[in-house]
Design brief:
Length: 173
C-alpha cells in the first residue's frame, strides 16, 4: 500500500487564484501536471492514515498561525522542485518545520518554497522560465495544515484532512 503523505500550507482567495493561474499557464506551456499552490511544511510521511491524522492534530495544537512571504524565483534539479518561488525563511517558518520534524520523527533539509512547475528540464530551460517570472511579492497567513495524499502520480493527489493552527503564543496582524 502506498502510504505517502505531505503536510501543506495553502494560500486562499485571490492569492490562491493568482498562483493557480501561474501554475496552470506554465503547466500548459511545458506539458506538465497541474497542482494546487502550496508550501510543503513536511513531506515524505510514510505512515498509516490514522497516524498521520493524529500526529497532524498534535502538530496543529503546537503551532499558531504565521505569515508566509513569497520572494524570488528559483530552481533545482529535482522534479518536484523544478521551478518555484522561495519563501522567506523567517523564524516562524523554520520553527514550524522544526516542530513538524519532531512530531513526525523525520529529518530533512528544509527549503521553504512554493512550486510553480514540476518536471525535468535542462538548466537552460529553467533559467529561461525564471527570467520570465517576476519576483512574487505575495504574503498570506498560514492558519491551516492540509494533509495531502501524495505520490508519483500528481493527478491522484487529494486532501485527506485539515487542521486549524491552534497555538496562541502570538497574534498575527
Amino acid at each position: 500500500m502506498d502510504n505517502h503523505y505531505s503536510l501543506w500550507l495553502m494560500p486562499e482567495g485571490k492569492d490562491k487564484e493568482k498562483l493557480q493561474i501561474m501554475i496552470r499557464e506554465l503547466s500548459d506551456k511545458y506539458t506538465t501536471p497541474v497542482f494546487p499552490p502550496h508550501i510543503t511544511l513536511i513531506g515524505g510521511i510514510n505512515l498509516d492514515k490514522e497516524d498521520v491524522v493524529e500526529k497532524t492534530r498534535q502538530l496543529s495544537e503546537r503551532l499558531c498561525p504565521y505569515r508566509i512571504e513569497l520572494t524570488k524565483p528559483g530552481y533545482l534539479n529535482q522534479y518536484f522542485r523544478c521551478v518555484f518561488s522561495l519563501v522567506n525563511k523567517t523564524r516562524e517558518v523554520m520553527h514550524a518545520n522544526k516542530v513538524a520534524q519532531e512530531v513526525f520523527d523525520i529529518e530533512e533539509d528544509y527549503i521553504p518554497h512554493l512550486s510553480l512547475l514540476y518536471g525535468d528540464f535542462p538548466e537552460k530551460t529553467k533559467k529561461k522560465i525564471i527570467s520570465g517570472i517576476e519576483e512574487i511579492r505575495l504574503s498570506f497567513i498560514a492558519n491551516t495544515i492540509y494533509i495531502y495524499k501524495t505520490g508519483k502520480e500528481v493527478n491522484k493527489w487529494h486532501t485527506v484532512s485539515e487542521f486549524s493552527l491552534q497555538g496562541n503564543y502570538k497574534k498575527i496582524r
